[in-house]
Amino acid sequence: MTTTVSDETQISNVVQNYCSAISNQDWDRAKSYCVYDSQIYFDTCALEEQVNNLSQHASTITISYSITISNIEINADYAEVSLRRKTLIITMDDYSQRHDIPGGIIYLQKIDNSWKICDPPGY
Question: N or C: which terminus of the chain has fewer CB atoms within 10 Å of its end residue's CB?
Fold first, then answer.
């Protein structure tokens, strides 16, 4: 099957828009980029719950989530996005916690002409 640049662009946009939604704490939008009931969907719900719990102890909470993509491989209706780095910074008032995670893979599935972040094949 021939892949198009538009598929790669759509996949990149889904990943970046997911990060943007997390950074904006727009949880419903973030979850909309995930396959429902997938591990990434549940991880997003867990992060939302963690931030909601933290907000009881801090007047402001900010999130910065970014991903650097190194490669996208498409195989029919599935894609594998190789990451160079993931960075998550959560700041509560004056306290900041940073997580830099080198490498990793994000999987996506094309459903009804839209790409969604999903579990790895066979998960």
Answer: N
* Digit-coded pLDDT (tens) for 34-72: 999 999 999 999 999 999 999 999 999 999 999 999 999
**Are the C-beta atoms of 85 and 55 separated by less than 8 Å?**
no
Identity of the amino acid at 5: V
**pTM score:** 0.90
- DSSP state for residue 119 in the 8-state scheme: P
E strands, the chain, are: 61-75, 78-92, 95-102, 105-111, 114-118
pLDDT at res. 3 = 54
> How much of the chain, in percent, has pLDDT values that exceed 90?
86
Tell me how far apart the alpha carbons of residues 120 and 36 are, in angstroms, rounded to a whole number: 14
Could you give the 3-state DSSP secondary structure of residue 3? coil
